[in-house]
Specification:
- The chain has helices at residues 43-49, 97-100, 154-159, 163-174, 190-201, 214-222, 236-242, 259-267, 291-296, 311-323, 342-350; strands at 2-10, 18-25, 31-40, 59-60, 64-72, 84-87, 118-119, 126-127, 137-141, 145-147, 182-186, 206-211, 227-230, 249-254, 269-277, 300-303, 335-337, 357-360.
- The protein is of the alpha/beta class.
- Strands 3, 5, 6, 9, 10, 17 and 18 form a 7-stranded mixed β-sheet that branches. A 6-stranded parallel β-sheet has the order 13-12-11-14-15-16, with helices on both faces.
- The longest helix has 13 residues, at 311-323.
- Helix 4 (163-174) crosses helix 5 (190-201).
- The chain starts with a strand and ends with a strand.
- The chain has 2 domains: 2-161 and 328-360, Quinone Oxidoreductase, Chain A, domain 1 (Alpha-Beta Complex), CATH 3.90.180; 170-304, NAD(P)-binding Rossmann-like Domain (Rossmann fold), CATH 3.40.50.
- The structure holds nicotinamide-adenine-dinucleotide (NAD) and zinc ion (2 copies).
- Nicotinamide-adenine-dinucleotide (NAD) binds next to helix 1, helix 4, helix 5 and strand 12.
- The site of nicotinamide-adenine-dinucleotide has 32 residues, from helix 1, helix 4, helix 5 and strand 12.
Length: 361
């Protein structure tokens, strides 16, 4: 058995996405069918559309989603039909070498649905990050469903499924930002703005937001940035150093994913500080740094996949903080749109007009 639903598909490299009818199988063992209520538009979806992630077209885009479980397959015990869930792309296996060492947030063998969703003609789809949620319904591994308090709005909840979690986690988990630290965040789109919020939550004394767009800097200020730097007008490294007693920040979070911004992050960091790369580069990008500086400046150069989050631990906790009024996640939803407006949302993202456009279904 299967169902036909509407969904947003990227058929070929760089071409505009299209609204298509896709075929979604009934859940098999360990799988869950989820009726999507909201799905945010992340820069990673645009990377997929442009062939920057892989060549496995056609892609079923969308991966920052929340919805309601409609049906589950055999052996699924953690979620049941009717549960309100955030979808995650880290369904930990419990068996790989990372899981066995007690570090499930690095799980090297995460689960996705085994059965394939297809186009009406049977062509197999590649769901973005194993999710594919610009769709009325999607099929995932049950472990990709994290049950959360249904009192939260679906638009806000869905954002925790990727960008907002990646940003908050880059600060809290990967960067280990703590009380009194100085932090600089380079690139304050959805992910970087969330890193600002996360740094604020952790009690950072100074949170310096860097972007080339004043609108993003203004939003970052609203989320707790103590200082802002427009790096189109001002040298980012010099500005961060000046704002940190001439030394640089304890933690610098790079949320753009380009060699030039990584280099800024590297030099805007204090001796023995930490750089966290959460922005996703494209395959042709190369980084050149004096090896002596890599050695001599000490500290840690880390990358952050999904904010090193553990969905079952982090999603419910962050949603609780939000519902208590202690974590402003509403600020991330710039606009809500319909399923056929994703291409327009890419355009607006490209022009920097939004933090997040969220598709409501
Ligand atoms: N590591 C992860 O798990 C993860 C998860 C989600 C997204 N991402 C990646 O994070 C990055 C940001 O995603 P997003 O959704 O926030 O994108 P976005 O388009 O909303 O934000 C990008 C921001 O970077 C700014 N920017 C661009 N060039 C800049 C420069 N030279 N200097 C300073 N700022 C600059 C833009 O003005 C914009 O505010 C993307 O590469 C995305 O693929 C990573
Ligand atoms: Zn594992
Ligand atoms: Zn994403």
């Amino acid at each position: 058995m299967s169902q036909q639903v509407r969904a947003v598909v990227a058929r070929s490299k760089g071409a505009p996405v299209s609204l298509e009818t896709i075929v979604v199988p009934d859940p098999g063992p360990g799988e869950a069918l989820v009726r999507i209520e909201a799905c945010g538009v992340c820069h990673t979806d645009l990377h997929y559309r442009d062939g920057g992630i892989s060549d496995d077209f056609p892609f079923l885009l969308g991966h920052e989603a929340a919805g309601v479980v409609e049906a589950v397959g055999d052996g699924v015990t953690d979620v049941a039909p009717g549960d309100f869930v955030v979808l995650n792309w880290r369904a930990v296996c419990g068996q790989c070498r990372a899981c066995r060492r007690g570090r499930p947030w690095y799980c090297f063998n995460t689960h996705n649905a085994r059965q394939k969703m297809t186009l009406a003609d049977g062509t197999e789809l590649s769901p973005a990050l194993g999710i594919g949620a610009f769709a009325e319904k999607t099929l995932v591994a049950a472990g990709q469903c994290t049950k959360v308090d249904p009192a939260v709005s679906p638009a806000v909840a869905g954002l925790l499924g990727c960008g907002v979690m990646a940003g908050i986690g880059a600060a809290l988990n990967t960067g280990g930002v703590g009380r009194g630290d100085s932090v600089a965040v380079i690139g304050c789109g959805g992910v970087g703005a969330a890193a600002v919020l996360g740094s604020n939550l952790a009690g950072a004394a100074r949170v310096i937001a860097v972007d080339i767009d004043d609108r993003k800097l203004e939003t970052a200020r609203g989320l707790g940035a103590t200082h802002t730097v427009n790096s189109k007008e001002t040298d980012a490294v010099a500005a961060v150093r000046e704002l940190t007693g001439g030394f640089g920040a304890d933690v610098v979070i790079e949320a753009v994913g380009r060699p030039e911004t990584y280099r800024q992050a590297f030099y805007a960091r204090d001796l023995a500080g930490t750089v966290v790369l959460v922005g996703v580069p494209t395959p042709e990008m190369k980084l050149e740094l004096p090896l002596l500086d890599v050695f001599g400046r000490g500290g840690a150069l880390k990358s952050s996949w999904y904010g090193d989050c553990l969905p079952s631990r982090d999603f419910p906790m962050l949603i609780d903080l939000h519902l208590q009024g202690r974590l402003d996640l509403d600020a991330f939803v710039t606009e809500t749109i319909a399923l056929d407006e994703v291409e327009k949302a890419f355009e607006r993202m490209h022009h920097g007009d939004v933090l997040r456009s969220v598709v409501l279904l």
